[in-house]
Amino acid sequence: MLHDERLHQSLQVTFTYVLVSVPLQLALALGLALLMDKGVRGLAFYRSIFYLPSLIGGSVAIAVLWRTVFGTTGLVGLR
Length: 79
What we know:
This protein has helices at residues 5-37, 43-70. The protein is mainly α. The radius of gyration is 23 Å and the shape is flat. The protein starts with a helix and ends in a 9-residue tail after the last helix.
């Protein structure tokens, strides 16, 4: 395995990602957090829009779960 060229290539790609992408994402997130901490106009709206996908995602997951449980071929199978 140590002589496989694909291993060396995948390790190079992984380390490049870790050394370039992760610090850039952290810096961007920190900059955005500092900007939002300043009390920017429309901050409540931005926070609402930012949090909305987590609310919708949970609701969709619960709806799919209940549909599966109470569907015609589900666990309870109401016929």
